[in-house]
Predict the 3D structure of the following.
Amino acid sequence: MIQAAAGVSKATVYARYPTKESLFVAVIEAECKAFLDSVRGIRLSSTRPRDVLMSLAKSYLAIVLSPSALDLFRVVVADAPRFPELARHFYLAGPRTLTDIVVEHLAKMAQSEEVDFSVVGLDMAASLFVNLVRGELHMQCLMHPESVPSAAQRDQWAEAAVTTFVRAYGISKPSE
């Protein structure tokens, strides 16, 4: 299928990707890059911490709950026992890189606001944020492929995750 879609010969595919695993790594890298480029490309209309977190949460949910991301996640998890290096590569190219992006934003908040992440550290705070955002909604979508949350449901989930996070760290709510 790949050979036909690319319009090249099988020999060309095998010359570029000598094993199925190397081909799968290339697919994972391309998918993770596309997903993460959209997160990096977020144009923040505000520098207020809560607004930044909402933008990150909404963008992340749009990515992680997309049919292609859910399919990729299912495949990687299913094959992780047979291909642990592949699963590790996926983690580093996707979830870990996203956590690093959140760390950058939290570091800016810690510099410019009265926010203190020192109790758990920036990396742990970012990981907690990402997991709050993904949480139950991601699990529901993985376990019930026919269930597709609406934009309103994703926004409601993002709001709940951000509210929990900002309350945990004393991030001020923007004035109404």
User: Anything to note?
Assistant: The chain has one domain: 28-169. The domain at 28-169 is CATH 1.10.357.10 (Tetracycline Repressor; domain 2). DSSP finds nine helices and no strands in the chain. The CA atoms of residues 136 and 169 lie 21 Å apart.
